[in-house]
């Protein structure tokens, strides 16, 4: 006899439990500890049972947590810990503005486009390859951002192989401001913004592609999120 097909509510229940477990696992690596019971799936998943796990939102989970600062060792409530993380993330972004050199905005448009577009792309790729995590980040988060850098570099190289260096560089130059924003978001976003990174990969690839991506290209970009479910 084959496996019994799950109901719609059972599928959603499993999805929500996975979300909560992944959230707790990632937050634990950042210094949080949680006192929360994750419900097991009952034989019959009612709307009430489904809502119980859906209601375990990040805000609720932080209220059931404690936090130990990786910088000072100070013990805080989960809510205080999240506020502290946000304060540190803002500090990181300020540092990023001072230290980040990934930019195509200072490259002028001249009458020798073939030469200049090569310089545009060479500059961006060089800066990404040489990029290093901020020293104020903890080791685990630094590893995550190094993975983002590698993923970004590989995806851009893939587009160059598909469309050619000159074409990709010209498209980057046309969208210089947005490209700069996307790259800096990918490299410097805080932990709570990680879930949105795949959409930034997709947007950057669409700029280099000159339009919408194929299904396989979209999957390749959005699969960047798999990393965060495996570390």
Fold topology:
Elements: H1 8-29, E1 32-34, H2 47-54, H3 58-63, E2 65-68, E3 75-77, H4 78-99, H5 113-130, H6 139-163, H7 165-174, H8 176-188, H9 197-209, H10 215-222
Antiparallel strand pairs: 1-2, 2-3
Helix pairs in contact: 1-2, 5-7, 6-7, 6-8, 6-9, 8-9, 9-10
Q: How would you sum up this structure, described in words?
A:
With 231 residues, the protein is mainly alpha-helical. It has 2 domains: 8-79, no CATH class; 100-229, no CATH class. Helices cover 63% and strands 4% of the residues. It has 10 helices and 3 strands, in the order αβααββααααααα. The protein has helices at 8-29, 47-54, 58-63, 78-99, 113-130, 139-163, 165-174, 176-188, 197-209, 215-222; strands at residues 32-34, 65-68, 75-77. Strands 1-2-3 form a 3-stranded antiparallel beta sheet. A hairpin with a 6-residue loop joins strand 2 and strand 3. Helix 6 (139-163) packs across helix 7 and helix 8 (176-188) packs antiparallel against helix 9 (197-209). The longest helix is centred in the middle third of the chain and has 25 residues, at 139-163.
Number of helices: 10
Q: In terms of per-residue confidence, which ranges show pLDDT below 50 for 5 or more consecutive residues?
A: 100-115, 224-231
The mean pLDDT is 77
How are the strands of the biggest sheet laid out side by side? 1-2-3
Query: What number of domains?
Result: 2
Q: Find the structural class using helix and strand composition.
A: mainly alpha
Q: Helical amount among residues, as a percent range?
A: 55-70%
Strand content: under 5%
* Shape estimate: flat
Main sheet: strands, sense, barrel? 3 strands, antiparallel
Topology, number of strands: 3
Calculate Rg over CA atoms: 21 Å
Please report the distance between the alpha carbons of the first and last residues: 36 Å
Q: N-to-C SSE series?
A: HEHHEEHHHHHHH
The oligomeric status of these chains comes to: single chain
């Amino acid at each position: 006899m084959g496996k019994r097909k799950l109901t719609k509510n059972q599928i959603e229940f499993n999805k929500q439990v996975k979300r909560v477990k992944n959230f707790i696992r990632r937050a634990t690596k950042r210094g949080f500890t949680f006192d929360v019971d994750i419900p097991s799936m009952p034989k019959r998943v009612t709307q009430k049972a489904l809502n119980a796990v859906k209601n375990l939102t990040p805000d609720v989970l932080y209220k059931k947590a404690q936090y130990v600062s990786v910088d000072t060792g100070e013990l805080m409530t989960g809510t205080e810990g999240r506020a502290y993380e946000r304060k540190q993330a803002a500090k990181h972004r300020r540092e990023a503005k001072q230290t980040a050199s990934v930019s195509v905005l200072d490259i002028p448009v001249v009458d020798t486009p073939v030469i200049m577009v090569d310089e545009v792309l060479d500059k961006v790729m060089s800066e990404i390859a040489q990029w290093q995590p901020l020293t104020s980040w903890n080791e685990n988060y630094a590893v995550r951002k190094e993975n983002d850098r590698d993923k970004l570099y590989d995806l851009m190289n893939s587009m160059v192989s598909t469309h050619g260096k000159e074409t990709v560089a010209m498209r980057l130059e046309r969208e210089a401001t947005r490209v700069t924003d996307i790259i800096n978001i990918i490299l410097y976003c805080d932990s709570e913004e990680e879930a949105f990174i795949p959409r930034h990969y997709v947007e950057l690839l669409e700029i280099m592609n000159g339009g919408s991506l194929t299904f396989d290209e979209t999957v390749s970009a959005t699969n960047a999120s798999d990393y965060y479910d495996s570390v």
